[in-house]
Structure formats: structure tokens, C-alpha cells
Prior knowledge:
The structure holds two protein chains of two kinds.
Chain A lengths: L1 H13 L1 H38 L6 H47 L9 H13 L1 H28 L5 H18 L1 H30 L1 H6 L3 H54 L4 H18 L2 H6 L1 H21 L24 E8 L9 E8 L4 E5 L6 H8 L7 E6 L2 E2 L5 H7 E4 L10 H6 L7 H10 L3 H5 L18 H12 L6 E5 L7 H15 L3 E5 L3 H4 L4 E4 L9 E5 L1
Parallel strand pairs in A: 3-8, 3-9, 6-7, 7-8
Antiparallel strand pairs in A: 1-2, 1-4, 4-5, 9-10
Chain B lengths: L1 H5 L1 H9 L22 H36 L7 H51 L9 H43 L1 H48 L1 H6 L3 H53 L13 H48 L11 H8 L4 E10 L2 E11 L4 E5 L6 H8 L7 E6 L2 E2 L5 H5 L3 E3 L8 E2 H6 L7 H10 L3 H6 L7 E2 L8 H13 L6 E5 L7 H14 L4 E6 L2 H4 L4 E6 L2 E6 L1
Parallel strand pairs in B: 3-10, 3-11, 6-9, 9-10
Antiparallel strand pairs in B: 1-2, 1-4, 4-5, 7-8, 11-12
Amino acid sequence: MNGLHRLIKLQWSHHRRSFTIGIVVALIPAIAGIALLGVAGWFITAAALAGLSGVFLNVFLPSSLIRGLAIARTLGRYGERLLTHDATFRFLADLRCRVFDGQSNQAGGGSKPRSGAALNRLTSDISSLDAVYLRMVVPGALAVTLGALAVVWTVSFSPVLALGPIFLFSLIIGFGAFVLLPRKRNANGRNARRREAALDAVRLRTVDLVGGRRDLAVYGGLDAAAEAVKSAERRLALAEEESDARSSSLVAKAGFAGQVAVAITLAIVSWQVAEGALGAAVAVAVLLVVMGLPEVMGGVVPGLANIGRTGLAARRAVSGVQSGQEGGNSNPVNPDHDIVSTVANPAPAPALAFDAVTFGYPMAEREVLSDFTFEIASGEWLAIVGKSGCGKSTVSALVAGLLTPAAGEIRLRGEALSAIKEPDLRRRVTVLGQKPYLFHDSIAANLRIANPAASDDELWQALEMAALDERIRSNSSGLDAMLGETGVGLSGGEQRRLGLARAYLTQPDLFILDELTEGLDAANADEVLSRFERFRGEAAVLMIAHKPDEIARADRVLRLDAAAASMAVPLHQV
Amino acid sequence: MRASGAHVDPAAEEGLCADGPPEGQPVLATVPGLAALIGDEARSLKRAGRLFALSDVIWIAQAWLIASVVADFVVPAAGGAVDFMVWMYSLGFVVLAFIRMQLNLRAGKLARQTARAVKSRVRADLLQAISSASPASELPTSGAVAAHVGDQVDALGPYLSNFYPQNVRLRLVPVAIILATAMVSWLAAIILLVTGPLIPVFMALIGLKAKAASEGQQEELVRMSGFLLDRVRGLETLRLFGAVERTRNQIADVGDAFRVGTMKVLRIAFLSSTVLELFSALGIAFVAVFVGFSLLGDVTMGTWGAPLSYTAGLFILLLAPDYFAPLRAYAAAYHDRAAGLAATEKLSALHAEILARSEVMPVHAVSKADQQSASETAPSVCFEDVSLCLGARQVLSSVSLRVGAGEAALLIGPSGSGKTTILDCLLGLHVLGAGKILVNDQNMAELDPVAWRQSIAWVGQAPRLFHGSLKANLLRANPGASESDMWEALALAGAVDLVERLPRGLGTVIGEDGFGLSVGEARRVGLARAAMRKDSGLILADEPTAGLDEDTAADVICGLKAMSGGKTLIVATHDPKVMAMTATHIQIRDGSCLEVVA
């Protein structure tokens, strides 16, 4: 709920005017609809009385009023929908940007990365948040305003007439307060979380069942795995039934309450008319207005009944926006520092230096790296080798600023990594991983991530250096070909080359190669490395590797021992 | 009256379901396949629809009560028992309202429960098809299946629990209201009859355009969510290339373009619901005008003889909105239908595909006593002229080989030669075409395959670790094992270091959606999982070193050796490092055994 509250505040501050105008305009068709009923009731009754007594009735005013109200209702509804939806979509577009900002401040700040599923949920949460304004804020404002107006209007005839509207008004206020009650809020939130957890379990367990059938047959059994999916489904059904039953009972009770209000008003108006305190035509108008109220006021019920789910989505989206502001401190790169000086050191400082660097996950029993010290001279090619899990990739993440050392210092050309401005660091260090992330976008867009100013010629040059130009040229769309499931299917090796081409659009002081040729056959690996060697020029290289062919290209090899990461032993010096 | 009243429904449906099945039939029953309703389910949903309709029809009685009370004070008849009648009628109105509430609750519950039962049945059928297929058969990708079992089955829910009963309601309620109106005034009934069917016609005209546009926009939404997701996933790359700020601007542009597109679609969609409201307002207004002028005495036709009384006039006016209500509800539920039908189709196709691709697994039930001998001690394994065809392909042809109790054997051959298939046969995943496999001189076909598999220590080519803690993954192999057993198995597999560095040690959640282990790390954990079966006498390993660096490969080989002391070991490989092990070498090529070198 906290999330919901903050989200409403976010939307309010995003554009106050459209937030308010949406509500005000929504009032027009709602009021017109109810007034239409009242006027129609009044008109018929007056007509009946006139027909009986033969008195002249001015049919012109009420009938034009009916016409006007009908038009106001229909057109107002159309305009209201357009306005409120447009305002909401504007806000959601802005929210997407904010969430991206939040995530980008957080990425690699040393905190736990979000899983793919969590990110997926975050992005789909945003799309579901149109419900907050459209189904909660606007109908809520309508219900309260119309209820209050109806009370005021009926009181103007006689306080006792207001009994029906007061009954409805207090019900809606009471219901809102009840749903927003902390205990109720938590119960709704719990139900929404249970439902989501069960849905996740259905998905994960199905993926495991389909993808791991051999392993399941030997370890644990296929039927047991199918049963596990079903048990997750039963939990899902329970959670869904709980919330569905609640919301359908709310809707039904709201309908009943509306009819009770009608019955109360029916009894009261006929008593008042019999007493002579009220004209018959006005009495029918009041009755029909009370009949129309529940429909408008009940509009808030579905939105409030779904508050658990919407609240959960809102909380996650708000935390997605804010995580960056909190995670910002763990960002090792100092964005405010703008003095970049490499001239200060007359003797060429080492391209990269680790000085007693220690790193470990907070909850782990052992540190991944402890007291690790090494240097890469300017223009040197250093290979770090060691078993899987010995911390090689941690070294690369530390240099790239994706992880922050717990102790010790990392220096680039003598300058502390923590003091280098982010854009400078990115210009000076290029990371070539074993799995380059390729975006579902065109080849050109993927390449220009590295250098947005690169011309098409430069892109082709980079592709040529990566030996990928012919493959791309063979496709009719060339650089504009889309990557991904529906686009060009690049093989694993070709994807690697595209990552390489992307790196060729940068001119760093230091390359980090993280298992660059992993999964490539010997001939391909050799070609990739040779081309890289020609391209790198004067840049220093930190290579994480285990293949003999790769290691042979290095000037120096450092063996990282799993048992004692600090005992880095130089193997050979070329 | 009845004939023309019944005419409303097919017309209404025809207008809206341009792509639907022939009118007059329940929509769902004509869709065959997995998600088709079986007897009771369709009956329950129809019953739910009829309960909803009954609740609506009660409104006719309530409207009559209101009209009577109001008429009583507007045009008071002679006699003084007014107060009593007012209270009785008001009370009766509330009682009827209460009955309606109960009917709606029951109908809703019935519809929900039936929908849930159908969803559960469809999921169970899919799971049954998956779990009874041999693990050696190629099924559609796990992601696609999970999307079907999750989202597509869920899409059936609103279709069944909402659209279906609304469809039934639409067939009953307007007819009842027209009949009730016609009893008072035939002209009012005709006004409703004329304006009602116009709604679906006009909505269909605008709706068709809106439908095409909104489908496009739905794809656009998926694409935009995908764009954001893609960029957030690739944030590390964006950051490493300093492209974060630029990408943010792109996201803003894409979001804005999407908003503009969506509003274009919504303008049309809102227009169609505006038309609906306009026509229902027109219908009500015509009735109101007719009633008003009849009461004034300006109109004298349209009734069955006697002039329209005030009671009757108010009565038909109160009924008019409820004539249009089911039409509006139907229109609102209409998109559930499209989603539900699409899901039905996709689910049936997936089910058929799984059944078509799946290979039958051997199933036997044999007393447990026979099992003990096979699993506890190191068994001897013997293939006698084993042949196997998968589809049209001959995978194994007359394979004969023998591995003595406690011996080690290597199946050597290039990939695709049938090594994995031989191991699969030993796991009991195939029904042999010819020949037999003897385990301790007992025909394997006589063993209970499930219990047999659970007694083997097996390491696959790419060990699949399941979503859950590392501990839970290890315990799958041996549910009764202690913590020290686990560390022992991890030590055998050379995975102690690795586990100690994980964020939460043995409690680290791995697998799908968990901490990502590298290929080498997963292999070590897979080996440790096999080592958890200390008591098993047979160890099978399929390409245990493929894709591993030398250090890890050496560790894995070392672990296999340590595990296999005194046990029967069969390893499929083409890695020279593994071939250096002391073992019988069995050359496999094109599905047959070439030579055996001891």
C-alpha cells in the first residue's frame, strides 16, 4: 500500500493538471447520467399528473434537458476516457524511464543482480499499473463526490430523504477504509504474493520437468516432478479462489446495498408524499437518482477488490525506481570527479595494478580473492589462468567496476579506479566477454552501442576486422537486419564475432578478454585471436583463459590458485 | 413474439463473432481438442449462466413492485391501506434483492469452480503427456511448454468463467424482458426489439476495425515491454560501453510512440462503446417518450386496448436499461472469448505435438525383492544383439557387449555414434526393438524401471540442476543423506571449494531463476549428485569432460575414479584424457559395436 500511495504521488507530481482534469471531466458524464434518470422520472410523473388533471405541461424544457443530458453523458464519457487514458500512458512512459534509471544505477553496484524472471516481472508490472489511476483514483473520486452531491441535493428537500444516499455514502467510505486498513492491506498483499509465488512455481517446475527429464528419471522421478507442478497449481487455485471469492462477494454485496438504499428511499418518499411534504414528481426523481447512484459508486469496487495485486506491482515498480538512489553509494565509480590526469606520472605507470585486493560475497564462507596483487605494464598482454571458480571472472568484474573490492586498491595508469569518472572508465577499458549481450535490435544498433557516432563505413570496417562482413552482406537487409528469434539467426561463433566487432569500435587503454574463445573450435579461435592481436595496437590486455593456444599469445601468465588466490605465481615470461 | 424474441440472440452473436462457429450452437463445444469441455463442465457453465439470468429476471418482479408503490402515491386509488402496502412491497423488494445476491454469488462460484476444474484438467493432461514420454524423446522447448502450462491455460479462465455464462445470459434475459414489456405494450417491445440488435451490428462495424488495430497495438505493447526488458537485461553491456544515457532517451521515445499508437486504437475502441451507449440511451429515450406522451394522452396506440396506466408506464421504463445490460456485459466479455479460443487452439496443438514426438517408456511392475540384488552390489551388464529404431532411424543395430561386475568400460566413438543411446537403454528409457539387456544375468525388462533408475549413479552430458537450493539438488539423489554425506560427495567431485565460495554455501538457490553456475561448476555439482548414491553399484557417465577446461576435466576424471572403486563403471567418451583411464575400451560406430580392447 505504501507502494500504491507513493505511486499515486508519483503520478500526481508527474503532471498535476492532467491528473485533476481527468477527474473533473469524469464527473460530467457521471452527473449527467444520474440527472438524466431524475429528469426522466420527474417528466413521466408530471406528464401522468397533467394527463389526469388536463393541466398544460411544458414538455419543451424537460425534453430538451433530457436531450442535453444524454449528449453530455455520451460525449463526456468519450472525452473522459480519452483524457484519463492519455494521462495514464504518459505517466507510464515516464515510469519506464525512471525504472530504467533505477536499474542502471544499481547494475553492477556490487548488489545482487536481479534474476531474469524478476526483471520480466518488473517490466510487466508497469504495464498493469494503469489500473491505479483508471480503476482506483478516478472511480474513487467519482464515488465520493457523487455520494456527497446526492446527500446535499436530497437534504435540500428534506433531511429524511437523504437517508438512502447517506447509507450508500457511508458504505463506500466504510468500505474504502476497511480495504485500506493495515491488517486488511497485509492480508490482501499476502494473498497476491502467494498467488504470484504459486504461479512462479508452476512455471519453474514445468521448465525443470520439460528440460530435465533424463535427470529427473534418475534423480527424483518424473511423476514426482509432475506432481510438484500440480501441487503448485493447487496452491495457485487456492489463492485465486480466495481473492476471486472476495471480489465477487464484494460486487454482489455492493449491488444488494444499492437495492436496500432504493427500498429505503421508496418507503420514505411514499410516506413523505402521503404526508404532503413532497411533490410526487420530485419524489420519483429522487427515487430514480438513488437507483442510478449504485452503478456509479460501485465502479470503485472492482479496483479496490484487486488492491492486493495492484499494490504489489506498485511497490515493486516504486522500488525499481528507487533502488538506484539507494544503491548509488556502492557504485565504485565516482561521477563527480572530473580531473583525469595521466601526465602527472612522468614514468609510465602500469596499465593496471591490483594492490592487495580482497573480495568475497557477504554471506559466503570464504573470500573469492584475498590480498591479491599484480600489475600489467603498459602495452603488456597478461593471461590469468586457473580452475573454474577460482575467481578469474571476479578479477575482470573488479576492473570493469562491476564489483567493488572489500579491501585494497585497483589502479589504472596509476589512478585509483574509484576516482575515475564513469564515462572515462568506459572509454579506457573495453571488456570482451565470452557471451556478448546482443540486443533484439538491428546489427547497426548493436554495434553503435559502443560508438553512436560511428559511420556505416566504420561499422563495416569493424565487421571486416571481426571477419563477419561477408555474413552480414549476404543478408539482404545488411546492417539493418534484426537480431533475435525472428531475425538473423547468428551462430554462437558469429555472435562472438559481432561482440568483437562492437569492441573494435572503441579505442581503450586496456582490453579485458574473458574466456574470449570459449566454445569456438580451434581454427575459429585462432583466427579471432590473430585478428584481435593485430587490432589491439598499444593497448594492454588482461586475458582470462584456460586454453593452451590462448595462453601462448600472452607475454606473461599468472596462475590463480583456488586454494590461495593471493599466491599468484608467474609461470613464464616471454 | 417468442419466435422474434429468440431471433435476437443469433443475430447478436453473428454480428460480434464474425469469425465464430455457426450460430445457435454453444461456442465452445465446437472447438475440439484438449480444452474442449466434457459433459458436466458445459452443463455447469450453462447452469451458472442460467442462474445469472434468473437473477436478472427477478428484476422484472422488483420493477413491478416499485411501479406499484410509486403509482400508489402518484395516482392514489381509493382506500387507506397505503402504509401497510408500501412497507410490505419495500420489504418484498429487499427480499428479492437478497435472493438475487445469493443467485449471483452461487452462479459466480459455480462458473469459477468449473473454469478451475477445466484448467486443472488441461494442465494434468499436458503434464501426464510430458511425464509419460520417454526422457530420451525430443519435446518442444521447456520455455514454450511452461508458457503454455502457465499463461495459456490461465487464458481459458475468463473465457470459461465470464464469457460463457454471459453468452447464456444474453440468450435468455432480453427475451424475458421483451416478453414482460410486450404484455404491457407491444409498441415498447418493438422499440426494444429494433434498437437492441442494432447495437451488435454497429459495434461489429466499428469493432472490426478496432479489433485489427488493437491486435496490432497488443503486439506493440509486448514489443515495448520486450524492449525495456531487453535493455535492462543488457544493462551491464550498456554500462561497459557507456551507452546508458543514450538508451534512456531511446526508451522515452519508444514509450511515447507507443502512447500515441495506443491512443489511436483507443479512440476507435471507445467510439464503439460510445455507440453502444448511444443506442441503449436511444432505446430508453424512445420508451420514455412513448410512456410520457401516452400518459399525457397524446399517444393512444401501442397497448392492448386500454390506455397505458402510470404503473405500466413506469414498469416498462424501469425494465428498459436491463434489456441492454446483458448486451453490454457480453460486449465487455468479448475479448475474453478471443483470448480463450486462441489459447484452446495453442494448447491442443502443443498436446498433439508432445504426443507425436514422445516415445513410449517401458513400464513394468515387479516385486521389490528382485530389485535389491540389482542395485546394492556391483552388477554385471550384458547387451545381447540389441537393436533400436527411433522413428525411421536405426540407432542401434545388434549391439552386443559385456561389462563384468565391478569392471570399468569406456564406450568410445564420435558423437552421434549411439553411445548416449546405449546408456539410455541401460537407464530403461527405450523399448528395445530386438535383443535383450541382462543385468546380473537377469533380463532388464523384468526389472521395475523406475526403481532401477533410482539405484544408478548417473552423470549426464549437461547435468540439469533444478530450481532450489544446492542441498535440495543433492538430496534428490539420496533423500536420507546427512550433511556430512553431502560434503563427502562434494569432496569426491572436487566441488568443496566451489560450494564454499557460493553466496550461501549449500543453501544457495541454483538452477532456473537462481545463481548461475558455469558449465564446469554444474558438471562438478552433477558429479557430486551422482556420488550421493554411495550404495549404488553401477555408475554411468555420458561425456563427463565435454567442454571442460583441463583442470576441471582432470578433477572430474579423478572424481569418477574415486567413486568407482569396486563398482561397475561405464563411461561414454571421445576425450583422450578419459581414454587414459584403465578400462575396457569398446569402440562404437554407427550404432554397432566394433571392437573391444581390454
